[in-house]
């Protein structure tokens, strides 16, 4: 469905995120026919460049990051005609009048702050002073949204000075992933799951976001952040919320976000002994984390595993195990809802522990599988076997699966549609920091040193023990 006509300004339009994700994503949305012919994208940054130079830069970015669609030279030419460039000085007055004159007032105006949070205030103030943004404008901001509760509060306050909450779109790109939304469809669109979605039937839940990449030249940022701030505070907690929240009365931005907020607020503070931090070690051929981060004494974690509890009626007593790390065995993100064992088996001789597991695979191979127990086919008697009921999209959707937009594409289109459901509200972000801050402060107070783990492994041994102690086992990362 095409969106309404728009002018989208990308501050930081020459930056890494713009070149890797935002512009290739917009290009693909244009190809799909979702973007009206007149819609324009305006790169704005400090570099002294003209529109021609910018178009050339983005042509190269699409060739590099645009995927298979980047082969269509004519389509790229057409896309590039939408692009404009303005040199702006975020801390001065240069370029702002030009930007004002360039924008059309009768279409949706959106402003993507793809810049460090230190510039949010400067940009917001100038957008208003130069009468570029009005109360209908939409502001898109990226993570990291602060580095603790205090800085997140300050950022929210800065934005709130200039814009209303319904104008602010805080991106967590995990919410734009296809399966994450499908998770809500599965939970709330079926009668099957909801009655079982509680501590009577669920033994525990595992959330794994495993990466094979290291810090990839982002050492300076990452070393000040670590896996807790970079991944857990946002992506993993958002997944936790969607799994654990009560059914919202409607699929509407505030109804959904109210329920997510309640989950975060119900999280019990994490016991220090229920967290494992890790740092990847060197191998014969590749450097260790400290070398990648360019700090030989760094105590920043590239891996975290923890056990969380939600203090409410539905989830009391059900552990939520979460882990994420870099340079692990495989790139694989999965949420697994592990149901309880049968109380009693009627099948003589069947000693195996059969369990229903609903596994929601975010990437790669997005899809949802339900492990069920059936009779092993054939004449061998009543032998039971576990098989997956596979709801993988590639099969269910056939050739249409190719057209599934990536997270950024979808989220940017949602900004234009004015749909905030998949964006974080200010109070949610603050509540998430309020939960993670004491964990990070606890490490600091104890001078906690992360455990080394082998590259290509599933993380430090202690992370395995975290579940082992509870008589449970992580699902394999594959
Ligand atoms: C980002 C983190 O938010 O998410 C990165 O800053 C991480 O460190 C990335 O690699 C993972 O995203 P995805 O979509 O590749 O799983």
From TrEMBL:
GO BP term (any one): pentose-phosphate shunt, oxidative branch
Catalytic class of the enzyme: oxidoreductase
Residue numbers binding NADP(+): 12-19, 46, 143
Pathway per the UniProt entry: Carbohydrate degradation; pentose phosphate pathway; D-ribulose 5-phosphate from D-glucose 6-phosphate (oxidative stage): step 1/3
GO molecular function: glucose-6-phosphate dehydrogenase activity; NADP binding
Database matches in SUPFAM superfamilies: Glyceraldehyde-3-phosphate dehydrogenase-like, C-terminal domain (SSF55347), NAD(P)-binding Rossmann-fold domains (SSF51735)
A family per Pfam: G6PD_N
EC number of this enzyme: 1.1.1.49
Keywords: Carbohydrate metabolism, Glucose metabolism, NADP, Oxidoreductase
Enzyme active site: 235
Reactions catalysed according to its record: D-glucose 6-phosphate + NADP(+) = 6-phospho-D-glucono-1,5-lactone + NADPH + H(+)
Protein family (similarity comment): Belongs to the glucose-6-phosphate dehydrogenase family.
Annotated function: Catalyzes the oxidation of glucose 6-phosphate to 6-phosphogluconolactone.
Name of this protein: Glucose-6-phosphate 1-dehydrogenase
Native species: Salibaculum griseiflavum
